[in-house]
Amino acid sequence: MAKNYENLEVWQKAITFALLVYRLTKSFPREELYGLTSQLRRSAISISSNIAEGAGRNSRKEFLRFVLIGLGSLNEAESQIHVSYQLGYVKENEFQEMMQRVGELGNLLGGLRNYLNKPHSTSHFPQSKV
């Protein structure tokens, strides 16, 4: 049985983002395994996890809280990608692609946040584009 959050474009894009982060960090130096690699992977996976957890809650207010946590995790991942780039672990083209993905995901999360802040809707799931 599919969960409602699986139909949300923002959750789907967050999963894709996490997969890209995992692929990107495969080439990081071994000494970063418990440092930057682990931090970046955890922040990336946290985005979709918080959307899913919030969607499973019984109120829009709680869903909103988890969306805000997801936004924080996205900001954390963005910062870590910047550090990775500055350290030379990420190539210019990879950095640009990841920043584009961060922007897109940020826009989608912001849209979901705005939707959940609207008091007039009874459902806490927006209509999916899928």
Task: Detail the topology: elements first, then pairings.
Layout: H1 9-25, H2 36-55, H3 60-86, H4 92-117
Helix tally?
Answer: 4
Instruction: Please count the beta strands (DSSP E, at least 2 residues each).
Output: 0
Shape: elongated
Radius of gyration: 15 Å
Biggest sheet statistics: none
**Measured distance between first and last alpha carbons:** 17 Å
Mean pLDDT metric: 92
Order of helices and strands: HHHH
CATH hierarchy: architecture: Up-down Bundle
What is CATH's topology name? de novo design (two linked rop proteins)
CATH class, please? Mainly Alpha
The number of domains is: 1
Alpha-beta classification: mainly alpha
Strand content: under 5%
Describe, in short, the structure shown:
With 130 residues, the protein is mainly α.
Describe the structure.
By secondary structure, this protein is mostly helical. It has helices at residues 9-25, 36-55, 60-86, 92-117. It has a single domain (4-117), classed as de novo design (two linked rop proteins) (Up-down Bundle), CATH 1.20.1440.60. The protein has four helices and no strands. Helix 1 (9-25) packs antiparallel against helix 4 (92-117).
